[in-house]
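hey can u check if this looks right to u? its 200 residues, i copy pasted from the old doc so theres a chance i mangled smth
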Amino acid sequence: CWICVATINKGRRAHQNLRKSFSPSSSLILQQSMALHRFSFSTLFLLSLTLLTTTTLSLSTVYDLLPKYGLPSGLLPDSVTNFTLSDDGRFVVRLARSCEIEFDYRVRYDRTVSGRISYGSITELEGIQVKRLFIWLDVDEIKVDLPPTDSIYFKVGFINKKLGIDQFKTVHSCGVSGCSWKSFLQLPGMVNEAEMLITE
């Protein structure tokens, strides 16, 4: 039956065309596309997990971390928005804004504070200054005695300034940075303070 033969031949041609459409090269492209999709999804998932971990760390443990290193939690103001810590102890703290706190000395925090933390000390410190007279001096290092005492030390250049540690045990609110009239009312004590800064 010539009609049956024609139908069979037509079916064979359709099958051959279908096989051509799924040639090895097309199959390879499909496999590569699927692999790229899986890679993109995995990358996105890991990135999201990393961001979530960083955010959780910054909001939950930033003030708990310092005591674990033997340091008072009040070394940082209450305006921390983000915190990261590397395996080698390097850390970066980001604040909502630069601000100041009045301890025994007036302390200024830049918007970004960084350094390297180890038990009992913070070295390579950047982003914290202490005000003496009319001058803001960079604090290079903060450390405590081991075993612990009632003192904490701010290293400014070659000077180690001894302070009472109790004032740093509470996390303080941080005021907006700016010029204070209080500085201009301390002129009579300027010489004595300068001598104390050098000798202590």
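Residues 68-199 form a domain with the at5g01610, DUF538 DOMAIN fold (CATH 2.30.240).
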